[in-house]
From TrEMBL:
NCBIfam families cross-referenced by the UniProt entry: SgcJ/EcaC family oxidoreductase (TIGR02246)
Taxon lineage: Bacteria, Bacillati, Bacillota, Bacilli, Bacillales
Top-level taxon of origin: Bacteria
Protein name, as recorded: SnoaL-like domain-containing protein
InterPro entries per record: NTF2-like_dom_sf, SnoaL-like, Steroid_delta5-4_isomerase
Native source organism of the sequence: Oceanobacillus iheyensis (strain DSM 14371 / CIP 107618 / JCM 11309 / KCTC 3954 / HTE831)
Residue span, SnoaL-like domain: 9-120
């Protein structure tokens, strides 16, 4: 994943993570296309910058949202101006020092290039609970603690 294409898509994802970690609803919503979709950890589906923004503002104002620790697993080109990124993510709740495994997630981002700028067409944050397979939860948590990153690259 060292080519420019992959790096640009990873930078877009990093901007999204940074906006979440800074609790910046406008910064997050602004990364999406006009009809971009965000599917949250709780299954909520939001379409468009305005709806995403109106959903995020109260979350950041009313809840102590933990920052993401993430690791990009792969970036795959789907065309000249489209890509899909898969990452794993965890969160360290406020006042804690360890990742809470119940908050682990698979994150999928579909990016499109519009007028020489990358935007998010879809971001999905899916819980990674691996029901009945606690070893997989532990494995993901250990990978994030060892190799995960929460800061700008």
């Amino acid at each position: 994943m060292n080519n420019s294409f992959d790096q640009e898509v990873q930078q877009l994802y990093q901007k999204l993570i940074d906006a979440w970690n800074k609790r910046d609803a406008e910064g997050m919503a602004g990364l999406f296309t006009d009809q971009g979709v965000q599917i949250g950890f709780d299954g909520s589906k939001l379409i468009g910058k305005k709806e995403i923004l109106s959903h995020l503002v109260p979350i950041f104002e009313e809840h102590p949202t933990p920052p993401f620790i993430k690791k990009v697993k792969n970036v795959r080109r789907l065309g000249n101006e489209t890509a899909i990124l898969h990452a794993i993510a965890g969160m360290i709740p406020p006042g804690k020092k360890e990742i809470d495994p119940s908050m682990n997630a698979h994150q999928t981002l579909v990016a499109v290039k519009n007028d020489d700028a990358w935007c998010i067409e879809l971001f999905q944050n899916t819980p990674a609970q691996f029901h009945g397979r606690p070893a997989l939860v532990e494995e993901m948590t250990e990978e994030l603690m060892k190799d995960g990153d929460s800061s700008s690259e």
